[in-house]
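user: can you give me the structure for this one chain? C-alpha cells are fine.
assistant: on it. calling the predictor now.
[tool input]
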Amino acid sequence: MSWRWALARRVAALTTPRGTGGVAQAQRLLPSSSGAGALLGRQHLPHASQIRSKVVGCRGAAFVSSRWLHDAQYHIHQDGASRAEEQQDPFELVADELSLLANRLRTMVAIEVPKLASAAEYFFKVGAEGKRFRPTVLLLMATALKFPMSESTEGGVLSILANKLRTRQQNIAEITEMIHVASLLHDDVLDDADTRRGVSSLNLIMGNKLSVLAGDFLLSRACVALAALGNTEVVSLMATAVEHLVTGETMQISTSREQRRSMEYYLQKTYYKTASLISNSCEAVAILAGHTTEVSMLAYEYGRNLGLAFQLIDDVLDFTGTSASLGKGSLSDIRHGIVTAPLLYAIEEFPQLHEVVDQGFDNPANVELALDYLQKSRGIERTKELAREHANHAIKAIEALPDSDDEDVLTSRRALIDITEIVITRTK
C-alpha cells in the first residue's frame, strides 16, 4: 500500500512549481462530527452557503437565486408540463457518452501481457461496469458548468474549442474511474473479499498478487492520462485524491480504541476513502473549464457532500440490505470489525455497547449483541438523517452556480440534484 502513497507524493512534487501551493494544495480537514454542516473538505473553507452569499454579493444577477430549485417543482421550462413528464434519468442523459468512455477505458487498459491485461480489464468488461456513478456525475457537472456559446461568425472556432474541452473533461471521468477501480482491487485484497458488484472478486479468481498488480497498472495508466492533460493544478488535485485513498485505508486498518468510538474519526476516514476522489474530480472539471475559484469550490462542495451521503447510505445498507442487492455479504463491515455511523449512533444511546465494540466482533455473539442494540436505537434513522443533510448541502452548491438560460445546463443541474435523491433513497 505504501507505493500508492509514494506515487501520489511524487506526482504532486514533480508537477507543482516550487514556491506555489495552488488551490489543490490546501489541506483537507474534517474537524467536527457535530453535524453535516461542520464537515469541511478544506482548511478555512467557508460553507457553501457562505460562498454563495459572497459570490452573489459580488456578481449580483450572475448567480442563481435559491428559488430556481424550489419554484414550480423543479420545472426547467415554463410550459406547464408536469415534473414527472420533464424528469429524466440522470444516467440516461449521458448514456451515449458513457458508452464511448467505456470503450476508451477498455482500450486504455489493454496491454501486451495477456494475464495482466485480463486482470486489468476485469471490471471494464461489458456487463461488469456497474452504473458508472462517478463518470456520470462528472459528465453532468461538465455540462452544468458550460459557458454560453456565441452565435457569431466565430461560433465554429468556439465549437472546436468546446469539443476539445469536453474531451479533456471526459479524460477526468476516465482517470477517476481507473483510480476508483484500482482502489477496489486493492481494498478487496485487504478485506479478503470474495465478491464485488455481484460477481466474484478478482482476488478470488486470480489471486492477491495479480489483483494488486492490476490495481498498480490501472493507477499507472491514470497517471499517464493525467500528465497528458498538462494542467498542474488538476494533476495535484488528483494526486491528493490518491493520497487520501491511502490515508483512509490506513485509518481503517489501524484504529485505536478511542478512534473506533469516534464519529469525527469515522467521518474523516469516510471523506478520505469515498468523498475525496469525487470532490476533487468535480473541482478538476471546473478548473479545466476555466472557472473562478468560487465556482470550482462549489463543484468541490457538491462532490464532497454527495460522496459523504453516498457512503453513509452504504453503511446503512450494510445492515439493512441483502447480499443479492448489495453484491457483497450483508454485515460485511461489522464482521471485519469496522464500526460505522449506525453503530456509533447506537453507542451514544447505549453506552454499554462500548465494551462490545472494544472486545471486537470475532465472536459471533458480539455481532448479535451489537445488532440487538442497533435495532433498539435510532442509529439507522440518524445515519439517514445525516445523509439527507449532506444531500441538501450538495443541492445548495448547485443552486449557487452561475446563472444560465442554456437548456442543457439547466437539465444537467437538475440531474445533479436528482442524483442526490437517488443516492439517499437507493436500496443497493
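assistant: here you go. Strands lie at 195-196, 199-200. Residues 1-85, 323-329 have pLDDT under 50 and may be disordered.
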